[in-house]
Amino acid sequence: MFWFIGKTILLYFITIMIIRTMGKSAFAQLTAHDLAAIFFVISLATGPVVTENLVQTITGLVVIGLVHIGFSRLMLFNRLNKIFVGKPTVVIKHGSLIQENLKGSHFTLSELLSEVREKGYPDISIIDYGIIEPNGGISIVPKQEIAPVTPEQLDVETSYQGLPIAVIIEGRTQHQNLELINKDEQWLDKKLAAAGYPDRNQIFYAAVRDGDDSLLIDTGAGSNRNGQNK
To answer: Primary place of residence (predicted)?
Structure first.
């Protein structure tokens, strides 16, 4: 049994290092140890189907779970984090590509351009910095001249809009969210009736802004309506 536990831990760390060498594109949005843990859990969980050794499988799952938790804690140490997780890689600087860094991340130019377009930047010349994060995601910092202008920069006063809190999802009332904004079903029914919806089952989605209690109603038919604020 101890040999099995030791072998499991050893293979877990070897898997992490192999995944790390595959480059960031291999595990977009997942760190190497996350992917390794998922791989081992799936492999071990399907083990009994082949070997019927349930005790060994459960032991392996527990070991991987504990090792993964411990490994995540160790990643708080900067040196270990750089070795096992990696560090951000700048691939676009002041509108120009850094080919060497891109190659080291195992991202192709086509993949990078696709990711950048998805973030709303079809032209790399307007990007100040493009950074591939350790989890494979891409962060974009646009050049100052094309960055969105804020109301503060224009010296324009804005009112607080509030966070939309879902109170009906697929026809089901979200009681916990109603309690969160200090409202009840009677209040909701009154608001819906005032907007022309006497039956909650007609509503596919409804949300209340916590700033002014205004109601957004969507029946799922391709249009929505703002309820009257009362």
So the answer is: membrane
Residue found by looking up tokens 């081992």 in the block: 40
Domain end position, chosen among 49, 84, 119: 84
Q: What is the DSSP letter of 14?
A: H
CB 137 within 8 A of CB 148: no
The string of pLDDT tens digits covering residues 123-159 is 889 999 999 887 778 899 998 887 777 777 777 777 7
Residues 6+ apart with CB under 8 A from 13: none
For residue 114, give the CATH number of its domain.
3.30.240.20
Question: How is residue 103 written in tokens?
Answer: 């190659």
**Which pLDDT value is given to residue 49?**
42
* Domain of 9, in residue numbers: 2-84
Query: What is the token pair recorded at 89?
Result: 């890689």
Instruction: Give the CA count within 13 Å in the CB-facing half-sphere of 221.
Output: 6
User: Which residues 6+ apart lie within 8 Å of 67 measured at CB?
Assistant: 9, 12
80 and 6 within one domain: yes
| CA separation for the pair 40, 66 (Å, rounded) | 13
Q: H-type helices in 28-169, by residue range?
A: 32-45, 47-51, 54-74, 78-84, 99-104, 109-118
Residues 108, 62 within the same domain:
no
